[in-house]
Amino acid sequence: MVGIGKVLEEEMRRKKITVRQIIYHIKWLCNDANYYLPDNITDLLEEACEKEVSSQGKEILKNILDNADVACGGRFPLCQDCGAAVVFVELGQNVVIKGGDLRDAINQGVVNGYKEGFLRKSICHPLTRKNTGNNTPAVIHFEIVPGNNLRIVVMSKGGGAENMAKLAMLKPSDGKEGIANFVVKSVSDAGSNPCPPVIVGIGIGGGTAERAMFLAKKALLRAGVNSDKEMAEFENELLGKINGLGIGPQGLGGSVTALAVYIEMEPCHIASLPVAVNLQCHSVRYAETIL
Amino acid sequence: MKIINLPLREEIVADFRAGDQVLLNGVIYVARDSAHKKIIEALEKGDKLPFELNGATVYYMGPSPTRPNMVIGSAGPTTSGRMDKYAPELLRRGLKGMIGKGFRSAEVKKAIVEYKAVYFAALGGCGALIAKCVKRCEVIAFPELGPEAICRIIVENFSAIVVNDIYGGDAYEEGRKKYVQYEIKK
């Protein structure tokens, strides 16, 4: 039997986070994500500006960087499509949420962020197309992790690029070549639609179909080099092929179609090789906080 | 760079070639998915449209909310392909210009040639920059659609690129052909 002292000690170790704090932070994350293009993305765009061989393409990339300046200077959304609010929550198992329901708090934060930040509400009934009016429900991905932190990432995902998402249940024998063909074709078919230059998120494996798409979405949040050396090389190979498609900035022709290719991989079923592609437009919008 | 005063006329449109950069000045009507559906329904019923279609230029856009003392919120183009279903009928009835982003269907491209119109691309994902050239904005129909309401905007030096011209030119296809290094295996 666990003594009462032990129980109290455990209780003391738990970190208390109020829903009030969560609502407040989600609101600011929604705003920050929409006004401020992350520094790692402006670095990639500046690099792309150097590399782009089309003079019109170069000009477009400069405009994209100018747009980022205007947006953060005037607290103007980077893009009028302020996206669906996708919220990644990593909840430490020692955290206790006080004062209400975590899901409600997240949605309330999104409501406040989109209202007070003059962000466009883009969520509607799928059939009647009636707008819910406050950009909720948010898409929330919960993950329970060790520790006593609550990490929240808010991603504002625009519809134009999200519409180009693709999933393939390949045969295990298709291997890397099959994956490469599927990914490059997906970007090729999307052409000018997802506002290139894009970031290509790829989910490989995962036990089931929806897991692969989640991995592709999660991949979009990465910054920097893949720690898996083989996958880092594969990302480079895919980036080379994609940039060889000639689609270019805004699809008007050029040598920079993608800024980066990011892969997330997990084990899968012995019968399957799920591969998902989730495209992110150049207007990458996410912000994070740790409570 | 061509400076164009709207509304468009056939002789102006005839001068456009795919890939041309233009600066548009004048009145543009903002309409996207739900507004297009309503326009087509009104046409079928024989109702009066909220704006004169003949010679008009439509911008596929749904702005973010306007801050106090500002003209408009962020105002970049949305993907045009979703309006492909409606565009040929509107072109047949006199619509001269369309502004958006992304490629059009074969039917729309054919209608652009047949009815002498033009499709421009604006800078996708640069809504903050584009908002600076919008000098006036008023909702003229379907306010209940929120960001999908029809607006009349007046623009100054609105930067756009001719994608589809009356000669069948397509700036996306031509641009891509010029820079392609890697062909996909069929």
Description:
The complex is a heterodimer of chains A (291) and B (186). Chain A is α/β, with parallel strands linked by helices. Chain A has 9 helices and 10 strands. Chain A has helices at 4-13, 19-35, 39-51, 55-74, 102-116, 159-162, 175-190, 209-219, 229-243; strands at 15-18, 84-92, 95-98, 139-145, 150-157, 166-170, 198-205, 258-266, 273-280, 286-290. A 4-stranded mixed beta sheet of chain A has the order 4-2-5-10. Chain A has a 4-stranded mixed beta sheet with strand order 6-9-7-8. A two-stranded parallel ribbon of chain A has the order 1-3. Chain B has 186 residues and is of the alpha/beta class. Chain B has one domain: fumarase. Chain B contains 6 helices and 7 strands. In chain B, strands 2-3-4-5-7 form a 5-stranded mixed barrel. Chain B is globular. The interface between A and B is large, with 56 and 49 residues.
Features:
heterodimer, A: 291 residues, alpha/beta, 60s Ribosomal Protein L30, Chain: A, 2 domains, four-stranded mixed beta sheet, 42% helix, 23% strand, B: 186 residues, fumarase, five-stranded mixed beta barrel, 6 helices, 7 strands, 25% helix, globular
